[in-house]
Amino acid sequence: MLNFTLKKTDLILLSITSIYGISFSINSYAQNKNNILTKPDRLLEIGEEQIDSNEDNIAEQISVMFQEIVKKGYASRPGDARPARRDAHAKHHGCAIGKFIVENKLPIEFQKGVFATPKEYKAFIRFSNGSFDLKADKIPDAHGMAIKLLGVNANLLKETESNGENNTQDFIMIDNPVFFMRTAESYISLFMAQSKGPEALKEWMKDHPYEAKLAFETLNKINPSPISAQYWSQTPYKLGENSAFKFTVKPCKNQTFITIPENKRGPDYLKETLAKHLKKKNACYEFFIIPQKDSMAMPIEDSTIEWTTTWNGKNNIFKVATLILPKEQQPDSDKSIKFCEDLSFTPWHGTEEMRPLGGVNRVRKTVYLETSNLRHSLNNAKQALPTEEIWNSFLLK
């Protein structure tokens, strides 16, 4: 996942920045004069992208940075069976299986890609911490949920970076509604500041107060269970030819969660919680889409802006599917953990009608592919390819 993790001391700096009264406005471009998106010379259409001419170069720079993170982790874990971990979301809490059930009688404008017809898809679900470090779950962090649907026969992306995986749809999500960087280019300045030490990071935060606040909000979460959180795509996607959407999953209503008392939580309590819950109980999520209604109020290229769930006084969030994680599975088994470790998730596994949009997603195409290839190469492992047979083998009975 194209994410960024700050050290605990960096989070303290972000906290201090927030406490001492810097004024933040989520919808104001004026907060950061050094990082304003180039204004289009005309009003953009719904779903229209604004591509930076230097974007390929930026993607390669970021890819090199993240590959260095993978190499550093590899060198520090010589006894690990899989020493090279992901550049972010390195620690997962388990690999679960689920059933993704598309709703009947969706409005015609939503019947695109995997939502084109009512169908039940088998799915693999990976829950994770956001950090590239394998740190304790008690330490604040972002958290991820990645869903991979199997048996997707729609018009698949022609540019998919599949490495042989060509019939899936991935949904990549974080437990925060917005990304904390306007553009992929902003990553480079933050990486450089952090590498120079606390004083440089302080200066970066002074120059980027808006992003600093969002980073703190994103990376400062402690969850009682991976299942109980709401997750968001943060970035947008096409929805057919002339529309775009973001998505979110929420736990179904009237659901109770098996948790571990706070005073008894160990360093891997999220993994333990997930396993305890799915051994005895189903988990249920509702999958919603949020359509783009206005290209300025809901920009494609600025993922720090949350897309509103109401528009002109009307509802603008629509349920399109239900995800059920069946009980009597063991997401923390050695087999499950190994499979998820070798599995790849990317927004670019999917269909043409639901193509990833925006600069962050476009950069992800290069970053995800190159870091995934490096990780598998260092581990002398092949990319795991999901099948229904593997899905069926995850059930205990």
Automatic annotation (TrEMBL):
EC number(s) on file: 1.11.1.6
Protein keywords: Oxidoreductase, Peroxidase
Cited SUPFAM superfamilies: Heme-dependent catalase-like (SSF56634)
Any one GO molecular-function label of the UniProt entry: heme binding
Gene3D superfamilies: Catalase core domain
Broadest EC class assigned to this enzyme: oxidoreductase
TM spans (from-to): none
Protein name: Catalase
Lineage: Bacteria, Pseudomonadati, Bdellovibrionota, Oligoflexia, Silvanigrellales
